[in-house]
Structures are given as C-alpha cells and as structure tokens.
Design a protein that fits this description.
The chain has about 1200 residues and is an alpha/beta fold. It has 33 helices and 37 strands. The strands form 5 sheets. The chain has a 19-stranded parallel beta sheet. Strands 9-10-11-12-13-14-15-16 form an 8-stranded parallel beta sheet, with helices on one face. Strand 27 (about 875-880), helix 28 (about 885-890) and strand 28 (about 900-905) form a beta-alpha-beta unit. The longest helix has about 35 residues, at about 55-90. The two termini are about 45 Å apart. Pfam families: LRR_8 (PF13855), LRR_R13L1-DRL21 (PF25019), NB-ARC (PF00931), Rx_N (PF18052), WHD_DRP (PF23559). Keywords: ATP-binding, Leucine-rich repeat, Nucleotide-binding, Plant defense, Repeat.
C-alpha cells in the first residue's frame, strides 16, 4: 500500500510544480527536491511491496515511508487549497489593480507566515524522506520502470465477463444435497440441518446457490429463505434477516419476543428451506436460541448451513456433514480456461501448457482458479504467463489454504491505481453491500483516483469498479438491469476481503464500540454503534491521522452534539459518514477538519448547517438528503469551489437555495434546485453547470420569462438522465407558463421525465422530436389540470415503457393523435400505464387500432368514472379502483389477463353477463368493496381453467356462493373471504375444489355451516376461521361487525385428510371443541384465539401425533386448564413439542425507551379495545402494518396514505 500512497503524493506534488506554486510561494527548491526523492523511492517500491511479505525489515521501512507520506499529503493538500484560494481571488478581481493586488497578496504578513511554515514543514519531510531513500540501499531492491496502466476495454475484452452458470465439478454434490432435501428429509419429524463444510474459496456458497435455485427444491418447499450469517451470529439480527428475506420487506426494530412470534407466524403451516451461509459461530447456546424459534414448520423443513469449521457442522448438523472436496485438475482447468481464454475458438498451445502448470498450483481451489484465470485473460505474451507461474509468491507460508498467494498474485499484477482503490475496501465489514457511487466518492476524497485527460474523475472511478468486477474482486449484488453499468451495489468474497485486510493491516479497521482498540495507526475506520453509552474522547484518542470515519449502527441510537466533544480533533480527515444517525450538529467537524472532501449526514436530525462548512475548500461531496429537519443551507456555499455532488433530495423543510449556485462550476450532481424570484436564485444559475444524473427543478412559477428559462440550458446537459419540472402555484398567464416549459427543453440523454402542476393548456412542441428523445423510458404527468390533451408525439417515443397520469382533469384520451393511413398506432412499446384522478378520461385512444398499446402488460386505473377499455392484446395485470359498470363490461374483452383486481362500486347488485367467464387465462381474481353486490352467477367461474386465487372482501350484501359456482374449478388453490357480514354459506360444489390448499374466512359472522363433500379437498393444507376481520382495507379497525353466531365447529370439517394448519379466531360463543378433532391426523399447527367461553380440549387431541405447535391466545378458561404440568388438560397436550399459551390482557409490559412508535401504537389499540378484542393479522393487515411502520419514521406525514399515492410507487 506504500506504493499507492507515494504515487499519489508524487502526482499531487508534480501538479503543484506545474502550476508554479513553488515559484510563487518561494518553495520551488524544496518541492523539486521532494519530487526527485519520491521518484527515486518509487522505482523500487513494487519490489519492496512483494518482498515485505518475507522480510520484516522491508516491511518496517515501508511503514516509515507511509507515515512520512501521510504528513506530506496534508502539506500538499494545504498548498493546493492556498493555490485555489489565490486563483479564486484573482478571478474575482475586476480591475487590473485588483488583479495585481491579488497576485501579490501572498506577500502580506499573514501569508508570509504561511510561506515560512510550509517551507519549514517541507524541509523537515524532505530530510526524513532523504534518510528513508538512503536506507533502501541496504535492501538491494530491484528497480521496476514499467508501470501497469488501467485501460478502458475494447469490445473483445468485454467478452470475458463470466457467466455464473458455468460451474464445474459440483453436479454430484448438488444432486446429493437436493435428493436429501426433496426425499430423505420427509421422514424426519424434527428440523433437518444439512451442513456443507469446506475451506475458503471452495465454492460452498456457489453450491448452496445451485441447490437453492434447483427446480426440484423450488417445487418441494413452500418458502425459501437465504441469510448470509458471517461472523456475527446474533440471534436477533438473524431472526430479522430471515423475516426480511421471507417477506421481501424491511423488518423494523422490535424486541426479541415480538420478532420471534412474527417469524413463527411466517414459518408455521409451511415447509420451508433456510440457507445459513458462511457460519462461524461455535456457541451451541446461540444456535439453539435460533433453532428453537424456527423449529415450527412442516415435516421436511430443512436448513442448509455452509461453514469452514467442522466444529460448527457438528454443533448444528442433524445429518453427517457434506465435506466439499477440491476440484479435480480437469474441472479446475475448465474453470481457469473459461476465465483466461473466454470464447476464443483457438487456444495457443504454449499458453495452454503454462496455464495447466498454474492450475496445478491452485490445488483444486475454484476461487484461486477463477481469480488467476481473470488475471491471465488480458495477458497475451508467453513471458507474462511464465512470470506468474514462477512467482515467489507461490512459496509463501500457507495459512489456511493456497488461496491467498493466488489472490496476492492477482492483486500485485494490477495497475497501482487499481491496487490502492481495492485495498481501501478493507474499511468495509465482511458481507457489507458497498454502494458503487459512495465508494467512488470515497476514493475521490482520499485522492486514490488520478485524473486522465478529459475523463471525469467519476468516470475513471467507474472504470476501476468495472475492472475489479471483471477481475472477480467484486461481486455484483444489486442492479437495475443486466450489464455492469446497471450494478449499483457490490460485495467482496470473504477471502478477497481477507486479502484487502492483509494489505491494509491496521490502517483500515472495523471497530465495535464496545470493543475499543488502539487506533493510533488507523487511517480509515468504521465504527459499529450499539445503543449503549461510550466515551467518545477515549475511543478517538490519538487518531489525528485519521482519513476516513464512518459511523454505522446495530440498532437505533442518538449522537448528539455533546457526544462529539469540541476537543475531538481530526486535522487530516478526508471523509466523514454518519448517515442514518440522529446527529444534530457537525460544528466539531467543520471547525477543525479543513481537508474534508466527503461529508454524508443524510437521514440525520441536522437543522442548520454551520457557516464554517463554507470554508471547506476541498469539499467534493455533501449529502444532506432526507434531513427532514434541515431548514436552510448556508448563504456562502458558492465558495465551495471544489464541490461536485450536492444531494438535498427529501429535505421537506428546505424552501430556498443558497445564492449563486452557478459559481460552483465543478458541480456534477444537484438533486434539487428551488427557483426564487431574486438575483442569484434564478433558474439561469443552472446554465453553466454540467450536471449528471437526476435534477428536480421546483417553484417554476418564479421564472420571470422564457428567456430566463432558456438560459438554464437544459438541452445542453447531455449527462442528465432524470428530470422533474414542477410548479407550486400558477399565478402567471397560461401563455407565459407554456413558453417557460417550451424553453426548458430536456437533453436527448433524458430517460425519466416528470412534469407536475403545469398550469398551461398545451404541452411543448419538443415532444414531437421522437428521434431526439429515443432514450425516454418513463414519463409522468401530475396535476396538469388545464391540459386537454397529452403532448403531440408522446405515443411515438420509441423507448417509452412506463407512463403515469394523475390529476389530468380535462384529458379525454391518452392517445389523441390521428395517424392517417399508418398501419401502426401509438404507444407501441408501452408496458406499464397508471392513470388516477382523471374524471373526464373516456378511452385510451381517440382512434382505436389493433396495434395501439400492443405491449401494455400492466394497467392501474383509479377514479376514472368515464373510462372504458379497448381490446388490449398483451395485458396481464389490471387493477381498477372505482369500477363502473361500463368499464367492467369492457374488461371481459381482455383475454390475456392473468391478474384482475376490481374495487369500489356502490351500484352493482350483480356482475354484467359474461363477466368474467371470457378471461380464460386469469390466475388471480380480487373483488373489493362492492357494497351492493348480492349475487354471483353460477357460471361465473366456468372457463377460468387457470384460476388459482379468489379473494372477496367487504361485499356486505353478499350472502352465499351459488350452488354450481365451483364446478370445474380444478386449478383453484386459494380462497379468501373477509368482511362480508351477511355471508352465510359456501357452495355445495365446494367439494369439487380438489386443488384447494388455502381457505380463509374472516369477518363473516353469519357463517355457521359447511357443505358436505369436504373429504374431496385432498390438498387443503390451511384453514383459517375468524369471527371478525382484523382491519378494514384503509387500515382502521373493523369494530362494526356483529357477533359471530358460530357456537361449535361444523361437522363437515372433520373430513379434511390433508389439513396441516388450522386457526380458530374470535368466536365469543364457542364453548366446546368436538371429539372428531382427533380425526385431523395430518394437523401440524392448531391455533385458538379469542374464544373466551372455550373451557377445555377434547381428549382426542392426544391422537394428533403430528401436532407440533399449539397456540392458545385470549382464552382465559382454556389457558388455565392448559397450564404446564398442573393444568387439568395438560396431560392431553404434553406430547406437543411446542405449546404457547398467553392472554393479550396479561402481556409482559414493554419499556418505553426500547419501543418504536408503531409497536406502541399497536399496544395502545389493544388496551383501548374493552368490548371487542383484536384478532390475528390477515395477509392484508401485514402489509398495512408494514406501511404504518414506514410512515412512523417520516415525521409530519400522515400515517394512512390515500389511494392516489399509489401513483408515486408505480
């Protein structure tokens, strides 16, 4: 790493010399001497870096060199800031006299002191470097003149990207594990744990992924969950991770008990597979703490564990461990060959021979073969291959495996710039998901990227990321689409991370706050916080050379200004990141850290940025996005001449921009610009800025004239991808408003465009240039209430795939154009269309053609009472909120529909003839809030041979299913009925549902009996009966439902041979469970809740030998009889492995300081319900709960969103 540091110093020093800084400030000789010494040292650094692994004296010599280089870095950065300030004063001067004054200002007394101080510091550093340079002679280091350069790849090189499907030598391993999971695990009544063991880089994770994605496994398990464990086996963290993987939603911070219950609710009644990848934990108690929570699924539920440690496999495994062996030499060669030669049809025999010798040195390790294959991919000379084969690095002492020498080889034969950028990544914890943009900005802040020609430094950083990705140092984990450029998050394999740490050693540290360490040599630190208090001064004692400080957290915490004492001193800090903390002040930082270049305080409690931030002349990135309390930015921000990225998105209280933003000529990212009608805040401030990425321009009503708008030069910003144009009010004439928008023509590079609250009648003419806007893929129009038509040419945009329309009061047609004799109509490539609050919209096309909207697959309609639909040939998903009869009649023509949701009708007592029988491809049908719907036609489902899910909610007049409605419904797997207060009976054809697996009936108080023939439901696994529905669709509690009449379970339920999960909720008059309950011999989980009159369990429950979970909630009489060991009914259930008995009214109190606000809200609801209890959550209420949790953390926003807000998520 010393080579990387010294080369940066040399580049910066030579840059200052070229700018004649030394001549102006009288330190020319010192700077030239420093440059000469550094050049001498650089010549031997490459050899020294390799030999330090075997020679401790060289290692110590390099450490001394790095320490001096860090000091020189600060000196040169200070010189650079002074040079920049001098140039700024020169450019700001108007008259010749002022220019001269500015030029000679370095000779005033204040700057004379600076000259002497810098000269003395340079001399001291020069003397020390001279000693270090002389000391190199005794090591006899070899000079290396040729430097490796990072190059942008040509087309041939891009062909080397490896297809991850190419996995060699693991078919037998995969089939063995799959066979166990699919077949052998069925016989086990306990949770099966299958451990895969192997040394690092052997492909344990790859093998687990192959198993996880195997079709046989997917068919055999109801739910599959993947969790990366790594070294932190924290049971609470893992439970949250499992919940998040299963639900695909973030899990909010709850206490352990509610987390455990939530997870068990997700897993019970299901056969699940969990993969715990990369486990290191050897504490059996911790493992048992997790196993006891997840041991609640059906027979055959399994866990696959990957680990390097046999002890872990012995602790966790229930079957013999699967020892992963090395690859055969042939398989290892195939993997290496694919990486090294790609798809080349001809192989060079001489290179093949050398390559096979290199493969032998990999000793069957797949990661070593893959990494070295990537290294050799772009080496075409035989001597280059021989150099790798004969390298001394193969002879290093082995630690755990042969992998690190192979990785070191791949590292050492990379360009210096790439090496220093890769090594920096040691700052991140293992398994950390690294955001690409953030990483590039951190590299920039630490001067790790060299400027090349006219390329932007961010572009060079992107090329470095691409190189690391292609060389297998990075693994892409999140992307927007296929291809590298759409990958925005990376991870590093554990062994690659080990390599980075091996290079950086103590310079990059990940520190747990409760395990403080000596950070005196640290340059880059991540602090992992918990919610406990700590001594900040002690933690940061003697870390004055710190370059990067990032704060992360295990759980919510608050860092207040007092927790960062003024005495803290970070004079060399380049990057500070405290996002998602509750930081309230950064004055301690801006007052002392003058070298700061990267400052991320997004999602914090900052209210006002200190004025001192404007003196950070080197600041490149400032991120205050989503600081909900931030009220204003400092007025003097135009002094931040190095600023390249200003992120202020989501600062809802921010009303004004600092003046003269246009002076920040280096600015590349400006997420929001708020126009104000005063000098320095006009939209023309954007004119000279070369902005990239996304830009939102707000308050366009403040633009005075079209000429001013034209000066913003949006059309010339060729790197913009996303543009939002919005008005807050419309006080000017429509003509002026239209001219302003006409002058804000976007650039051809634009992909996403959103126009909000435009007050004109006509959209601009630039939409007609479909050839220019060939990149536009997503457009939204919101609140354009005066527009009668959408823009001319919109339907001809060749790449448009998504269109959003909301609040378009006067628009009658989406496509209003006449195409003459053209065979093709408009919107040929549109895939997603969302339309809300458009009361006069009549049709999609004024002149309908067969080809119109020919690719439309997803359509959401809300509050469009006049709209009818044409025949859409590709439509798959349709949602209608506010469904009129006329619109419903046209739905029957959509023969390709697979999912249909219709909601909100107060007129129809029955559906129109033919609905929905013609929708023969329909798989999911949802009917909500048809308040007068009384009858369903007997032939309603005839012809729906693909229908798998039927949901009916809040249809208060519906009394029953017709007798023959389910005849022929052989594919129906799920029926859900809720909040139908007059619903009395199911159909006698219910027995025909031979594929039915899930049945839920909630809030149907009149339902008392089930039809005969339920013994035909051979696939029914889950039955939920609830007397009350939990929530209305708007999220409020449904307390108006009459008391359910059910007093005993219907006799027909005893004939369900495959029933595994049964829940009985909320029947206040249920007094007795029948003896035939013992006939349900397949039952695994039985849940009884809120049946206060229920007194005892039948004796036959002892016959349920497969029952592994019994839950009893809010049944006080029954709870007393089922008390462990002493209850009268305990002997009946003593054989059940897991029995949970509790009453909501006697829940353990939860401390206020450890609660999040949403969970307290739920408890408050429970406490307020004196007359009627709350019953178990439905699959709908789970989503509502998650929505509430999200909104609890966005202060000053309403908790319950209106349906119209769906547009923002489309």
């Amino acid at each position: 790493m010393a080579e990387a540091v010294v080369t940066v110093m040399l580049e910066n020093l030579n840059s200052l010399i070229q700018k004649k800084f030394g001549l102006i400030w009288g330190v020319k000789k010192e700077m030239e001497k420093l440059s000469s010494i550094l050049l001498t040292i650089c010549a031997v650094l490459e050899d020294a870096e390799e030999r330090q692994l075997r020679d401790r004296a060289i290692k110590n010599w390099l450490q001394k060199l790095k320490d001096v280089a860090d000091e020189l870095d600060d000196i040169l950065d200070e010189c650079s800031m002074e040079a920049s300030l001098l140039e700024y004063k020169r450019q700001s001067s108007i008259s010749t006299q002022k220019v001269r004054a500015s030029f000679f200002s370095c000779f005033n007394p204040k700057n004379t002191l600076f000259r002497f101080r810098i000269a003395k510091q340079m001399k001291d550093v020069s003397d020390r470097l001279d000693e270090i340079a002389n000391e190199r002679m005794k090591f006899h280091l070899r000079e290396v003149v040729q430097e490796r350069h990072l190059q942008v790849r040509d087309k041939r090189q891009t062909g080397s990207i490896v297809n991850e499907k190419h996995v060699y030598g693991r078919d037998e391993d995969k089939d063995k594990i799959v066979e166990f999971l699919v077949d052998n695990s069925r016989s086990s009544k306990d949770l099966s744990v299958y451990p895969i063991v192997g040394m690092g880089g052997m492909g344990k994770t790859t093998l687990a992924q192959l198993v996880f994605n195997d079709e046989r496994v997917s068919r055999s398990f109801d739910i599959k969950i993947w969790v990366c464990v790594s070294e932190d086996f924290d049971v609470k963290r893992l439970i949250k991770a499992i919940i998040e993987s299963a639900s695909e939603n973030a899990c909010d911070a709850l206490d352990m008990d509610p987390l455990q219950k939530r997870l068990q609710k997700m897993l019970e009644r299901k056969k699940f597979l969990i993969v715990l990848d990369d486990v290191w934990n050897e504490d059996q108690e911790q493992w048992e703490g997790l196993r006891n929570v997840v041991a609640c699924g059906l027979n055959g539920s399994s866990i696959v564990v990957t680990t390097r440690l046999k002890k872990v496999a012995l602790i966790m495994g229930t079957v013999p461990m699967h020892q992963l062996s090395v690859l055969s030499e042939d398989d290892c060669w195939l993997l290496f060959k694919q990486r090294a030669f790609g798809n080349e049809s001809e192989e060079r025999p001489n290179l093949v021979k050398i390559g096979k010798e290199i493969v032998k040195k990999c000793k069957g390790n797949p990661l070593a073969a893959k990494t070295l294959g990537s290294l050799m991919r772009f080496k075409s000379e035989e001597n280059e291959w021989l150099f790798v084969m004969e390298s001394e690095l193969w002879n290093l002492p082995q630690e755990e495996t042969s992998i690190l020498p192979a990785l070191r080889l791949s590292y050492f034969y990379r360009p210096t710039e790439l090496r220093r950028c890769f090594a920096y990544c040691a700052i991140f914890p293992k398994d950390f998901e690294i955001e690409k943009e953030q990483l590039i900005h951190l590299w920039m802040a630490n001067d790790l990227i060299s400027v090349k020609g006219n390329m932007e430094v961010e572009e060079i950083g992107n090329e470095i990321c691409k190189e690391l990705y292609w060389r297998s140092f990075f693994e892409g984990v999140q992307s927007n689409n296929d291809g590298f450029d759409n990958i925005y998050r990376f991870k590093m394999h554990d062994l690659v991370h080990d390599l980075a740490q091996c290079i950086m050693k103590d310079q990059a540290r990940v520190v747990e706050i409760d395990c403080p360490v000596n950070l005196s040599r640290a340059r880059h630190v991540i602090f992992n916080y918990s919610d406990q208090s700590f001594d900040m001064l002690f933690a940061f004692h003697n870390v004055e050379s710190l370059r990067t400080l990032m704060l992360t957290r295990h759980c919510p915490f608050r860092i207040e200004a007092r927790k960062f004492p003024c005495r803290l001193y970070f004079p060399s800090l380049r990057a500070f990141d405290a996002k998602n903390s509750m930081l309230t002040s950064i004055s301690f930082l801006t007052n002392t850290s003058k070298h700061l270049r990267y400052l991320n305080i997004s999602h914090t409690y900052i209210r006002i940025l200190p004025k001192s931030i404007c003196f950070l002349q080197s600041l490149q990135t400032l991120d205050v996005s989503c600081c909900l309390n931030l009220q204003k930015l400092p007025k003097q921000m135009s002094r931040l001449r190095s600023l390249r990225h200003l992120h202020i998105f989501g600062c809802s209280l921010l009303r004004h921009m600092p003046p003269n933003i246009g002076k920040l000529t280096c600015l590349r990212t400006l997420s929001i610009f708020i126009v104000a009608g005063r000098r320095g805040n006009d939209v023309d401030e954007l004119g000279n800025l070369n902005l990239h990425g996304s830009l939102s321009i707000k308050n366009l009503e403040e633009v005075k004239s079209p000429m001013e708008a034209k000066k913003a030069n949006l059309a010339g910003k060729m790197n913009l991808k996303c543009l939002e144009l919005s008005w807050d009010r419309n006080e000017k004439s429509q003509v002026i408003i239209e001219q302003v928008l006409e002058s804000l023509e976007p650039p051809p590079s634009i992909k996403f465009l959103d126009i909000s609250n435009f007050g004109g009648r006509h959209f601009p003419q630039w939409f007609k240039n479909s050839a220019i806007y060939e990149n536009l893929v997503n457009i939204g129009f919101t609140g354009c209430k005066n527009c009668m038509e959408l823009p001319t040419g919109l339907g001809k945009l060749p790449s448009l795939t998504s269109l959003r329309l909301s609040g378009m009061d006067l628009v009658r047609y989406v496509d209003n154009e006449y195409y003459g004799g053209e065979l093709e109509g408009g919107f040929l490539h549109l895939q997603r269309l969302l339309i809300t609050d458009s009361p006069n919209l009549e049709r999609l096309s004024k002149e309908e053609r067969r080809t119109d909207f020919s690719c439309l697959s997803s359509l959401h309609i809300e509050k469009c009472p006049k709209l009818t639909l044409p025949c859409l040939r590709s439509i798959k998903e349709l949602t209608i909120w506010g469904c009129s009869e006329a619109l419903l009649r046209t739905v029957s023509n959509l023969h390709t529909l697979t999912s249909l949701e219709i909601c909100d009708n107060d007129d129809l007592a029955s559906f129109p003839d033919g609905f929905p029988q013609k929708l023969t491809t329909l798989q999911s049908l949802t009917i909500k809030r048809f308040s007068k719907l009384q009858d369903l036609q007997s032939d309603m489902l005839i012809g729906l041979s693909s229908l798998e899910s039927l949901t009916i909610t809040s249809c208060h007049m519906l009394e029953c299913f017709p007798v023959e409605i389910f005849r022929g419904s052989y594919s129906l797997k799920s029926i859900y009925v809720e909040d139908c207060i007059k619903f009395k009976s199911l159909s006698t054809s219910f027995g025909d549902l031979t594929a039915l697996e899930f049945l839920e009936l909630r809030g149907c108080p009149e339902l008392e009996a089930f039809p005969n023939g339920l013994n035909n439901l051979s696939c029914l696994k889950s039955l939920m009966l609830s007397g009350y529905s939990t929530y209305r669709d708007d999220g409020s509690q449904n307390l108006s439902v009459p008391h359910p009449k059910l007093t005993t379970l219907p006799e027909a339920l005893q004939h369900l041979p495959s029933l595994q999960h049964m829940s009985i909720w909320g029947f206040p008059n249920l007094e007795l469970l029948p003896d035939w309950l013992g006939n349900l011999t397949s039952l695994h989980l039985f849940d009884i809740s809120n049946c206060p009159k229920l007194e005892c369990l039948p004796t036959t429950i002892q016959d349920l030998t497969n029952l592994h979970t019994l839950e009893i909630r809010s049944c006080p009489k029954l709870a007393e009889r089922c008390e462990k060991e002493i209850g009268e009914d305990w002997h009946k259930i003593a054989h059940v492995p897991r029995v949970a008995v509790w009453d909501l009214s006697h829940q353990r109190p939860i401390q206020e300081e450890t609660m999040n606000c949403c969970f307290k809200l739920r408890l408050n609801y429970w406490r307020s319900l004196e007359k009627r209890p709350i019953y178990g959550p439905s699959h709908h209420s789970q989503n509502i709960h998650a929505h509430r949790l999200t909104n609890c953390f966005t202060s000053k926003e309403t908790v319950n969103k209106t349906p119209g807000d769906a547009a923002s998520a489309f």
